[in-house]
Specification:
Blueprint: E1 2-4, E2 14-16, H1 19-25, E3 28-30, E4 43-45, E5 49-51, E6 54-57, E7 59-60, E8 64-66, E9 72-74, E10 83-84, E11 92-97, E12 102-107, E13 124-132, E14 134-141, E15 155-161, E16 167-174, E17 178-186, E18 193-200, E19 207-213
Parallel strand pairs: 1-16
Antiparallel strand pairs: 2-17, 3-19, 4-11, 5-6, 6-13, 7-10, 8-9, 11-12, 13-18, 14-17, 14-19, 15-16, 15-18
């Protein structure tokens, strides 16, 4: 795992790729617009969510969630990979997000729904029906403070897994105020990214939107 304060880089198994390039290259976008548009705190999701060819939940089966006020994922997932739900009110929510201007996903932390302190403090796992060679996502992490009084931004951690639960690699990124666009491609060209998990320690929490993936891996 490589921790960076500047632009995101990955370990040798993963290559940074511009989000804009993947937006043209990949044929599917998970944008949460199939759900009603509700103001925060939005819609509480206690069960795993299915959209397109992706399952979403708090974690992968076999992992444990600890920590406060932010979720920390511990332990390897079990094979074959499966999505696991969190405790009621402490998994996920979807609401209209002012920064994105659209629906976005909030991983909920231990404070629980609908507490402001829970929004964006949790963990989220995404499990793809097909192995991926590349993925992209957009992360929002706090708003600019008009008087410069905002807390320092935290870090984002992404872990990439194969279908058998083996870890491909991890990326840590120091977040920026507002929207950060991220894209990653497998270094060896293998379409074996079956799942990713996302955690953070940002004081204001995060929201996710516009997750890019491919419905037919062999097509790119």
């Amino acid at each position: 795992m490589l921790a960076l304060a500047g632009p995101a880089r990955a370990d040798a198994a993963l290559i940074n790729t511009a989000y804009a390039l993947l937006e043209v290259e990949l044929d599917a976008k998970l944008d949460f617009e199939t759900l009603p548009r509700r103001a925060e705190p939005g819609i509480r999701l206690d069960a795993p969510m299915r959209e397109g060819l992706v399952w979403l939940g708090e974690r992968l089966a076999g992992q444990q969630v600890t920590g406060a006020p932010h979720d920390i994922l511990q332990g390897p997932p079990t094979a074959p990979l499966a999505i696991a739900a969190g405790l009621p009110g402490a998994a996920l929510s979807v609401s209209h997000h002012r920064g994105f201007g659209s629906n976005a996903l909030f991983p909920l932390g231990p404070a629980g729904f609908p507490a402001l302190a829970a929004r964006g403090e949790g963990s989220v796992a995404l499990l793809f029906d097909h192995g991926q060679r590349a993925i992209g996502l957009r992360i929002h992490s706090d708003y600019a403070a008009p008087l410069g009084a905002a807390q320092p931004q935290g870090t984002l951690t992404l872990a990439f897994y194969r279908r058998d639960g083996a870890l491909i690699g991890q990326v840590r990124r120091r977040l920026e105020t507002g929207i950060t666009e991220l894209g990653f491609r497998r270094g060896d060209g293998m379409a074996d990214i079956a799942a990713i998990t996302v955690t953070n320690d940002d004081p204001g929490g995060i929201a996710l939107d516009d997750i890019l993936y491919q419905t037919a891996p062999m097509a790119f």
